[in-house]
Write the structure tokens for this entry.
Amino acid sequence: MSLIDDLKTNRDTQIMAFGIAFFLLAFPGYFAYASSSTTTGSYSSLGPVGNYSIEGTFEYFEIASGTEYIGDGSEITVGAHSDTAGLDGENIVGVRLTFEHIDDEASGLTCIGVQDEADDLTISMTKGEFMTDGTGSESPLVIESYWIDNSTVGTNVSNLSEEDVIGQLDGGDTGLGSYNTSIMVMVNKGSRTGCDTVDDGETVDYKIEIITLEYTVTKID
């Protein structure tokens, strides 16, 4: 007996054929519906546009430190790497550079009473496409810089989705890898008529730290 004859007379064959036809027709439609109804990405379950409270804690981890003598008008570069801190999976959001220096200006008897003048440090740090710099004579000279919007931590924000808020607080991969920091010294001499001080450079203590952020985002009315 042929399949056609079975379909005409055999009830079991008819039920089996109907089931096969049903699944062939229903499955593509189901998958198309499921595909169109699913939000892709890691933020699919996050909150809608509204008001949010942001709380967070910043921590600092040293990745390099040392002491260098830098001559007047000279520039040196010191390196560091994020792996030093062992922060796999942490949210690295910025860098803090700290420089301490004591003016070693020397003078003779004719300069007694002349105030030493602090030398100027000029700092430039690059991290991939991110760059920060600063200049100052104070000690310590501290330069702190972020590649996120750190001003929102500890505040409430409005008219943003939770995904948008997280996007402003997530440092991504920017903080991973090498940090190169250039330090330049320009001396300043205290002087008066008949006084000739000697100031050939500066001894600089430096410290490079990366900054991490742990945060919570809470929907508010």
